[in-house]
Amino acid sequence: QVQLVESGGRLVQSGGSLRLSCAASGGTFRNYALGWFRQAPGKEREFVAAISRSGGGTYYLDSVKGRFTISRDNAKNTVYLQMNSLKPEDTAVYYCAADPRGLSDVIDGNALAAWGQGTQVTVSS
């Protein structure tokens, strides 16, 4: 079973950029589709971005398209979320997740095989 650890979250000003990282261990990384989710205070967790096992397929929440980019480095067992043009409404705890079933299941977000502990992103106005 893969274990996930996120990093890179911090306080940033509106319009700024951050890159989140999620390092995996304990599993065969290339066998997992990966995703990023977020949860703001008082709100339900929402899907943000996902990437297929090969990295050839990606999918995004409409509100982050053109601003966020998900990528993976299978040699480093790491998935990234590059976030540009950040807005206060992007403030949330960001979680990475992994599942061997594939991209559509990660997008769905239910019963995924592994989750990280989360990293806080705060965007000030």
Short account of what is shown:
The protein has 125 residues and is mainly beta.
Low-confidence stretches: none
Approximately how much helix is present in the residues?
Answer: under 10%
What is the average per-residue confidence, as pLDDT, rounded to a whole number? Answer: 96
Alpha carbon gap, first and last residue: 40 Å
Rounded to an integer, what's the Rg over CA atoms? 13 Å
- How do the SSEs run, as a string of H and E? EEEEEEEEEHEE
Percent strand: over 45%
Number of helices: 1
Number of strands: 11
Structural class comes to: mainly beta
Largest sheet: 7 strands, mixed
Approximate shape: globular
How would you describe the overall organization of this protein?
The protein is 5% helix and 48% strand. By secondary structure, it is mainly β. The strands form two sheets. Strands 2, 4, 5, 6, 9, 10 and 11 form a seven-stranded mixed beta sheet that branches. The chain is globular and about 40 Å long. The mean pLDDT is 96.
Secondary structure topology:
Layout: E1 3-7, E2 11-13, E3 18-25, E4 33-39, E5 46-51, E6 58-60, E7 68-73, E8 78-83, E9 92-99, H1 103-108, E10 114-115, E11 119-124
Parallel strand pairs: 2-11
Antiparallel strand pairs: 1-3, 3-8, 4-5, 4-9, 5-6, 7-8, 9-10, 9-11
Task: Using brief descriptors, characterize the structure shown.
125 residues, mainly beta, seven-stranded mixed sheet, four-stranded antiparallel sheet, 11 strands, 5% helix, 48% strand, globular
